[in-house]
Design brief:
mainly alpha; about 50 residues; 3 helices
């Protein structure tokens, strides 16, 4: 595993990392944010060939 991946893993298992993960999950649960992500995904998938 690369050094960057190790640092990310350590951060995500830390209390501050867990707080960020929980906040991200709460934000993703909001319908408005889900719509924005769907629009972004559709734009990005349209660019593929």
């Amino acid at each position: 595993m690369s050094a960057l991946m190790q640092r990310i893993s350590r951060f995500l298992s830390s209390p501050k990392g867990q707080q960020m993960v929980d906040r991200g999950r709460r934000e993703l649960a909001k319908p408005g944010n889900q719509d924005k992500l769907r629009q972004l995904a559709s734009r990005l998938s349209g660019r593929r060939r």
